[in-house]
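User: Before I run my own analysis I want an independent prediction to cross-check against. Here's the chain; please return only the structure tokens and, at the end, one sentence I can use as a sanity check.
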Amino acid sequence: MAGSPVRKGRAVPWVLLALWIGVLALAGPFAGKLGDVQHDRAVDYLPASADSTQVARIQEELPGGETTELVLVYHRDGGLTAADRTEAARQVTAVDAKLDLVAPPRGVPSKAGDTLMYPVASTGPGIDEKARDAFVGDVRDLAHDTGGLNVEVGGPGALATDASEVYQSLDGPLLYTTVAVVALLLVLIYRSPFLWLVPLAVAGVADFLSMGVAYGLHQAFGTTISGQSSGVMTILVFGAGTDYALLIVSRYREELRRVQRPYDAMRAALRGCGPAVLASSGTVAAGLLCLLAADLNSSRGMGPLGAVGVLCALVAMLTLLPAVLVLLGRRVFWPLVPAFGSEPKQRRSLFSAMGSSAGRRPLAVLGAGAVLLGALALGVLNLPGSLKQEDSFTDKPDSVTAMRTLAAAYPDRSAQPITVIAPAGDADRAVAAARTTPGVAEVRAGRSGAGWTEISVTADAAPQTAAETRTIEALRDRLDGQGAYVGGPSAEQLDLKDTNARDRLVVVPIVLAAVLLILVALLRSLVAPLLLLVAVVAVWGASLGIAGLVLEPLFGFSGTDPGLGLLSFVFLVALGVDYGIFLMHRMREEVLGGQETGAAALTALRTTGGVIASAGLVLAATFAVLINMPLVQLVELGFVIAVGVLLDTFLVRTYLVTSASLALGRKVWWPGPLARKPAAPRPPAAS
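Assistant: Structure tokens:
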């Protein structure tokens, strides 16, 4: 029997490794199919209940299916010549002859005579994104610059194609950049030529598994998978997974100095930090799953995918990582090998110094920190307005250039039609009502089928302006009660803004309640969880405030994504509480070991501060990768979360939470038993 524990210590890691090989073999075929079910159509981002969503869905049922609408823009500074008009007509005729257009294109000259636009539409591509992109590419090949005549292809179809190309290009650069950033930070943190490879490889395995699970979710429940949600899932796998690895490896290194066998040291490490890792991942997953209450399709789809990424990272870090580390033994830490019975080098700890400064005047530190966060939060008032479609790219593609040319050349006419879908029996009444609506320049009835008629409405204002918004709202009021829906690209942007405002009111309280319940269960207290929640909400406000101060002046962004507030809240609250859990759980351990709360707070900061700082840097860096992406909404989301994580790591956790704990003393554990009397030291574990 004496050799049994030794044999077990050797067998368990190999069994876990074999199980993971089997899991990856099963997940492989599904992971490879994730790209096939990833879509970035308007309906995949729109609110489920909005008018514009109903329009997009009904259009798919009309004869020919969904319409791809483009605008060919011919422009010459100083005015178009007769030869320019002849060349434009020739190119448009070639487009009409080669491609399946709904109707022969009709040119609309600008008042200044320097621009000529041809709206064109086709039902050929339908809802097939690849067919749409091919159609747009063919139009761009046929309509091209010549002899100083500038030719641009814009419209909703061109914008969708350019956005799709950007999302498709994200997968490789996003993954490679994330891996490179995490690898660099791990090398600096571990100062070992080998150790950094282990958590990075395990995170890669978790990412592969999450892709397979995400595909299964889509097949089983129809979960929306977009380029944005799959990209965020990868970020979460590497960011959260590396955080858990840092905590586990740090505790494992401590135990290796006290315990001789790596297997036993790992068991002790998992017993010590396992509950904190489980609680932190549970908090993140629960917070993300609260997005299921959102009406916006893109937000609702991001919730399950984000939760899948976090849970796959958790499972990998609690099983595969320990198995690999145990099999590699102490040598994986070379050259800083933690020998059995040795003591770590005593260095002056930055976090000890921080704790000491907070401990001398905790109320003053707490007050100064609160004032600073409040002042930063005032920057929210400087956030730019809602992001327009044409401003959503960091680099301006052809479709955006075309929209700007049209806006300058046709200030009193929209080149982007408003689409009305009316019951076929009431189509004439809907057309008549639309024609008498203020702000409407032109109304044309289009296709009919499946009980519906499509009506194209042209506003007398440029797209996504206040005047066009008033026209859309007036149309909806005028057609109210007739069973008609008002949609189109501008209506979609309006619905996105309104639905995001609704989702914030619904999702934010649910997230706070879910996170609070998990923290209460973990910490057996009400005050400590409330303290952590107040801290992360303050961080969220300050992060948005900083964004308000820099997004327009520094990045040059003229608008913010309507979903920025909600998504940044969910991520910062869920991820920020992670570090609070690491700190508070260690503090509770020390209190249970017999220390007073004040001393326990300083001990927890000294022992976990380095890990929390490292984890915060890694997580902030992974989200900062999004700042290099070519879509404004990803840049804004990455910036706000990265700034928030850094604020949380180096200000809130180290100073404010520690100061509040010192000021409250045992009251921080109220109403649990630790609030009433000092805990009796726990007896040492039996050997």
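Sanity check: The radius of gyration is 29 Å.
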